[in-house]
Amino acid sequence: MLADKVGKQLGRPTYSLTGWLVTKFLKWHNGILEQNAVKLSNIQPVDTVLELGHGPGLGLQAASKLLTGPKGKLLGVDYSVYMHQMASELMKEQIAKGRVILHCCDLAAMPIAENSVDKVFHCNCYYFWPDLNAGASAIHRVMKPGGIMVTTLNLDSVIKAASMKILSGENWRPEVYMEALQSSGFKDVQMKSKRDKFVTFQAIFATAVK
Ligand SMILES: C[S@@+](CC[C@H](N)C(=O)[O-])C[C@H]1O[C@@H](n2cnc3c(N)ncnc32)[C@H](O)[C@@H]1O
User: Fold this and answer.
1) Residue 54 alpha carbon to ligand 1 centre in Å
2) pTM above the 0.85 mark?
């Protein structure tokens, strides 16, 4: 019961006591994963970068600091109204300058042009997608040929969350997501273990082929 409630809030935080607590947890626990997803995406100043399921916005903040070129652009997609509003507040100056655009919608329906994004990153997000093939295809559609997708996760924590029934089904398994990436047109799909500030985490990389 509680596990189900927490799982639902992690998957789509709402304005509620549990949603507020979950958001505190995301900010406290996931900064390292967000910063490393940005770092591993090898963002160039003129890139167009997309974060999926940005939550409170820590990754957006880190990525926007690297997009210093005149054409550098940052996009974000999250279907939680609560997270969209929190991240919009955090990024309001960049949004006002037109350098950041946040969409409050399901990633399967993101209003982003085909072949327009150089780098896509996401953290702690794919486990909540009901259909990983649809999710991977939606990412592939918006990416430029040769574009890089990076997702970071703490596999130990994910396994624990699945054993506690906070995550349901099998979509949390990295190999299931990696298979979906491969069958949606990505190549060089691989997972590597990394370490930062005494934290071990995993990063999945994929290159869009068109
Ligand atoms: C566990 S939170 C992670 C937030 C942040 N990336 C972090 O690591 O702290 C998952 C986020 O992904 C969003 N999300 C999950 N599935 C989504 C979907 N299909 N489309 C858009 N956003 C989604 C949720 O609303 C939530 O904000």
Assistant:
1) 6
2) yes
